[in-house]
């Protein structure tokens, strides 16, 4: 199951009512109005949090509400304000109004926050309504309801490098080799079902953020395989790493299919700078698939084995150089 989309109903707290009260004290006849104001309703706030990896926690939690404000009280006491409800979402979450489709906010960087439903205004106590001719106003106002609306959340990972390849090409294995990420690796297609990020630490303390996404197949743009839904996670990457397993079918043909699928995205993915590597070099025997593929597609192709480590260092260096240049 993907957890990169969620519809949620957010509802801010109602403002507390104003109070109707008069000062009652011995020796103070006709004490004036002293009804306090209500407290403001709590708001619903979304915050981008790097420790939150997906929108999974919002699935079951479709209705998110904030606290209501308390009513005002006599003796000019203002009611307590409702507490805000703060919800963590992953960096890269785009918040839209579900009905209009308009973007409310794109929560990109850690700590970015947005009020998605504003708390209701508090009511006013009767002390505000005293006039020269009416010293005993019985008027007060009620708190306003909090804002309420449906939102559509969409996660688009933000990374330096996006991995592009058929299922089983060895994308997750590569990421496990070069980063601390421990994705599931298995010898069947579509092992990776949800996109996630891995961090490669470079020697100079700089880092590369890599997005591993589910494998791409021919016709993905028409919904085949896991479809194009995950392609959006490649949209906010600086460069792409094509990983092609030459022991599984015609490598040049695979490359063309991948390229064609990217070309179906209108976000300029096909023009994104790319590095191409042929995977599982430890299984090639005498053949140099990297050179063969390079000749056929007319670009440099690296030989990579995530098992023996062949080409890993060179590939990371190439990615780092490319990304630093693009940054
Ligand atoms: N011999 C060898 N096997 C590899 C290498 N890299 C990956 N594999 C194997 O290839 C299979 C698929 O690897 P994954 O890393 O899960 O492939 P993936 O591209 O992430 O696949 P999906 O998540 O299904 O799209 C696993 O059985 C890996 O052990 C390699 O360099 N050499
Ligand atoms: Mg995988």
Descriptive account of the structure:
The protein has helices spanning 56-59, 171-178, 232-235, 251-263, 289-297, 312-326; strands at 5-11, 44-48, 63-65, 85-89, 93-97, 103-107, 113-117, 148-155, 159-164, 196-201, 207-212, 237-244, 274-278, 301-303. By secondary structure, the protein is an alpha/beta fold. The chain has 2 domains: 1-155, Spo0b-associated Gtp-binding Protein, Chain: A, CATH 2.70.210; 159-326, Rossmann fold (3-Layer(aba) Sandwich). The chain has a 6-stranded mixed β-sheet with strand order 10-11-9-12-13-14, with helices on both faces. A 5-stranded mixed β-sheet has the order 3-1-8-5-6. Strands 4-2-7 form a 3-stranded mixed β-sheet, with no helix packed on it. β10 and β11 form a beta hairpin. The protein starts with a strand and ends with a helix. The relative contact order is 0.14. Guanosine-5'-triphosphate is lined by residues 165, 167-173, 185-187, 189-192, 214-215, 279-280, 282-283, 305-307.
Helix count, DSSP H or I runs of 4 or more residues: 6
Flag low-confidence runs.
none
Q: Name the hetero compounds present.
A: guanosine-5'-triphosphate, magnesium ion
Q: Record the strand order, biggest sheet.
A: 10-11-9-12-13-14
Report the CATH C-level class of the largest domain. Alpha Beta
Class by alpha and beta content: alpha/beta
| Helix content class | 10-25%
- Radius of gyration from CA coordinates: 29 Å
How many beta strands in the DSSP annotation? Answer: 14
Overall structural domain count = 2
Can you name the CATH architecture of the largest domain?
A: 3-Layer(aba) Sandwich
CATH topology of the largest domain: Rossmann fold
> What is the chain-wise order of helices and strands?
EEHEEEEEEEHEEHEHEHEH
Overall mean pLDDT: 91
- Approximately what portion of the residues adopt beta-strand conformation? 15-25%
Biggest sheet character: 6 strands, mixed
Quaternary structure state of the chains depicted: single chain
